[in-house]
Amino acid sequence: MRRPLHLDVFSGPPVTLPRLLDHLSERWWSLPPRARAVSIGVAVVGLVLAGLSHAAATPYGPPTRVLIADRDLPVGHELTGRDLQHTTWPADLVPDDALSEPTGRLTVPLTAQAVATQRHVAADGLASELRPDTAAVPIPSDALPALTIGSRIEVVGRDLDGRSVVLARDALVLAVDGTDVWLAVPRGVAPDVAAAGASGLVTVVLLPP
């Protein structure tokens, strides 16, 4: 009986592997069965972890550890490890001056879940531009129209019924960076302005100079 043509590929001498692959093949089959099983398990776990790491990456860069406030912290508060907690943010969204250690005394309020930066504890900069009865509050820049340093504005939020309410009158724009607009507002309304900014339920009315 004639041998089917499709089986001819299996006839003839064994395929000669490159020396390195041949050596690795011999080492692999010389391992005990349990060692081979463990090696396969480790390889599978490595592939899964690599896949999860790739999935965790975002268009804004790889995850980076940052310190965020555990709660609202007032001006003058001395930072400790109990005030801040580590979390991960995409690298491109982390401020350049983010704190690496929970140290320093706040010269501007630090709201809950905000990234702690050098600007919060600097002895000059924003703090030097504040009057004694005011505080500097950051508002996410993507929640506001384009503003320039020195602009005077009214900060408008919403009450529980969805109606507009003025949170701060004659607020001063102190600084504009890549992620936040820093406003000088009266201390008494600073927590309300910060909360409205964090929730995204805030807008502004530009006042004449």
Explain how this protein is built.
This protein has 209 residues and is of the alpha+beta class. Among the domains are: 57-123, Antifreeze-like/N-acetylneuraminic acid synthase C-terminal domain (Type Iii Antifreeze Protein Isoform Hplc 12), CATH 3.90.1210.10; 133-209. 24% of the residues lie in helices and 25% in strands. The chain contains four helices and seven strands. A hairpin with a 3-residue loop joins β5 (164-176) and β6. The longest helix is centred in the N-terminal third of the chain and has 24 residues, at 33-56.
Following the backbone from N to C, one meets helices and strands in this order, namely: HHEEHEEEEHE
- Beta-strand percentage range: 15-25%
Helical region count?
4
Radius of gyration computed on alpha carbons: 30 Å
Please count the beta strands (DSSP E, at least 2 residues each).
7
Name its key features.
209 residues; two-stranded antiparallel ribbon; five-stranded antiparallel sheet; Type Iii Antifreeze Protein Isoform Hplc 12; alpha+beta; single chain
